[in-house]
Design brief:
Elements lengths: L4 H9 L4 H7 L5 H4 L4 H8 L3 H15 L14 E6 L2 E7 L9 H8 L7 H13 L6 H13 L7 H18 L7 H13 L4 E6 L2 E8 H9 L9 E5 L8 H11 L2 E2 H4 E6 L4 E6 L1 H7 L3 H12 L3 E3 L7 E4 L19 H12 L2 E3 L6 E6 L6 E6 L3 H4 L11 E2 L2 H8 L1 H18 L6 H12 L19 H7 L2 H11 L9 H6 L19
Antiparallel strand pairs: 1-2, 3-4, 5-13, 5-14, 6-11, 7-8, 8-10, 9-10, 12-13
Helix pairs in contact: 1-2, 4-5, 7-8, 7-9, 10-20, 11-19, 18-19, 19-20, 21-22
């Protein structure tokens, strides 16, 4: 029984019980399950027709979502809601696809070195060799290596020799059939991991911006934490503003979260039952805000009347719980606010966000000494909201929050982020690990179309083998559940074969050798 975990999860998300979902997902993809009849489901699940009918109805409802009665796709759909007899159409919730421009797509796939004479010579030699293993990236790397050795052009024999030696190198670098790739990867990362320490990286000149490094960061990545301990972003400015230090400062002030306590001193007047805000003009100027803007935002957020000591450029703002307009001040003597209301208002006002993007606690302008351009390093991360800003370079703006990248840019971007973050952390600890081991980890974590942790709540918890799952954590739970639903273990992996004391099906254990004597 090889249960497709993605199919099983989809069935369970539809409200189908785990035992039925487990049996239906046995070696079946979702495309195989959704075309089953009620009779097929009853036979496979060994249940009555009524229960099979409910399962079939749930699957049918999921497959017919967004389709008409004939099963034909209805195209861009529009939700409609009736209001007092009137028909009001909402905006389309399915957008038409753009026309596919084949030439533009092919041009975008060309490598930037495609016009280089060395690149062309190597590409021609690779085609003549008949090898299918030379990608644009490999040829580009070989081109750069030739340039580094002072070669601006290659003759045909020279290009042929480079390709020939590259084929030999590729053969040596390739993994053998039945090699224990996963174990080698674990060992290659685990052994240097023992030399890693609890390190914290400080941005130059900014003592308050710390980034988790070393072993804690590796654990964060492989555990697929939803929010890292120290989320941070590198925000690059666009071509027009990247050399403008003032533009970087303005952007930092605009995106950094500004709360009431950042720009004012709060004073709770218990006797008068009122809250007094003494505005700090210097901080307001630094944050790019005016007293009138603060007054307006406080009034709209709390729906209370905000009194100012002066009409223009006030320095003190006063708020009273329960007073929503100037007319309510007259009734204040008869119906004064309670002490509890005053404390609740103070608590609400203290941490109120008046300006900035949620999640960005600090934003510090930095100067890149090599390129001479300004960028922002932040404490906190909010990739979707930052990407909406006009004066940033989206293609070079980066966050260390992998789950945020997955939610906004998709699984391929998340996979690359896992590799980059692992490489960055290992390089920071001056440890060398072959990138192919990191690619293996990233591929395993993202193989199901979502970022999964390497643990009992992710990869290890969804292994097909019962014994392999039980060997990791919560042994009794896995064995008990497998016994209840009658799951089988075919002992195809490593851990389960070691447990039962027989050779694993890798390396020499993958070969079955028989001696048949002649008659």
């Amino acid at each position: 029984m090889v249960v497709k975990s993605a199919t099983k999860k989809k069935l369970m998300d539809l409200g189908i019980s785990e035992n039925f979902a487990h049996v239906l997902a046995d070696d079946r993809k979702w495309d195989d399950v959704k075309i089953m009849t009620q009779a097929d489901i009853a036979k496979i699940c060994e249940t009555d027709s009524e229960s099979a009918g409910l399962v079939h109805a749930a699957i049918l409802a999921a497959t017919q979502k967004g389709r008409d009665g004939d099963g034909e796709n209805t195209g861009p759909s529009t939700k409609v809601r009736l209001v007092k007899g009137k028909r009001r159409a909402r905006a389309k919730n399915v957008v038409d696809l753009d026309t596919y421009d084949f030439d533009r797509k092919m041009k975008s796939l060309e490598h930037e070195l495609a016009g280089d004479p060395v690149y062309k010579s190597l590409q021609a030699a690779a085609e003549d060799s008949g090898s299918k293993r030379f990608t644009d990236r490999i040829i580009a790397d070989l081109t750069v290596a030739c340039h580094n050795r002072g070669k601006k052009k290659l003759t045909k024999p020279q290009a042929k020799k480079v390709i020939s030696e590259s084929i030999d190198a590729l053969e040596r670098a390739s993994i053998d059939p039945y090699e224990a790739a996963g174990i080698i990867t674990a060992q290659s990362i685990g052994e240097p991991g023992t030399q890693m320490t609890m390190r914290t990286f400080h941005y130059a000149g900014v003592a308050t911006v710390n980034v988790t490094q070393g072993l804690p960061r590796i654990i964060e990545i492989v555990d697929a934490r939803k929010v890292p301990k120290t989320p941070t972003m590198t925000i690059r400015l666009n071509e027009k503003q990247k050399h403008d230090g003032n533009a970087a400062k303005k952007l930092a002030a605009a995106i950094e979260v500004t709360t009431t306590v950042n720009i004012a001193r709060l004073e709770t007047d218990v006797a008068q039952r009122r809250l007094v805000l003494h505005l700090n003009k210097g901080n307001l100027k630094q944050k790019g805000m005016s007293p009138a803007e603060v007054k307006d935002k406080l009034g709209r957020a709390t729906r209370l009347f905000v009194q100012a000591d002066k009409e223009k450029n006030p320095s003190t703002l006063t708020m009273i719980p329960g007073v929503h307009s100037e007319e309510d001040l007259a009734e204040l003597g008869e119906n004064p606010p309670s002490y509890t209301m005053l404390l609740q208002l103070e608590e609400k006002i203290r941490d109120m966000r008046l300006k900035g993007i949620p999640g960005i606690e600090r934003a510090n302008p930095q100067l890149d000494d090599k390129t001479g351009e300004y960028y922002l390093s932040t404490i906190g991360s909010n990739l979707p909201r930052i990407s909406e800003l006009e004066n940033i370079d989206r293609s070079r703006t980066y966050t260390n929050n992998i789950i945020e990248i997955y939610n906004y840019l998709g699984i391929e971007a998340a996979r690359q982020a896992i590799v980059d973050e692992l490489q960055l952390t290992l390089d920071g600890a001056r440890l060398e690990v072959d990138v192919r081991h990191l690619l293996m980890v990233a591929d395993v974590m993202t193989s199901e179309g979502e970022v999964r942790a390497i643990g009992r709540h992710g990869v290890s918890g969804t292994k097909h083998s019962i014994l392999a799952r039980a060997a990791f954590e919560v042994t009794v739970n896995h064995l008990l559940k497998a016994g209840i639903i009658g799951e089988k273990d075919y002992l195809t992996g490593v851990a389960e074969n070691i447990i039962v004391g027989q050779p694993i099906s890798l390396g020499t254990g993958s070969v079955a050798l028989y001696y048949i004597p002649e008659e």
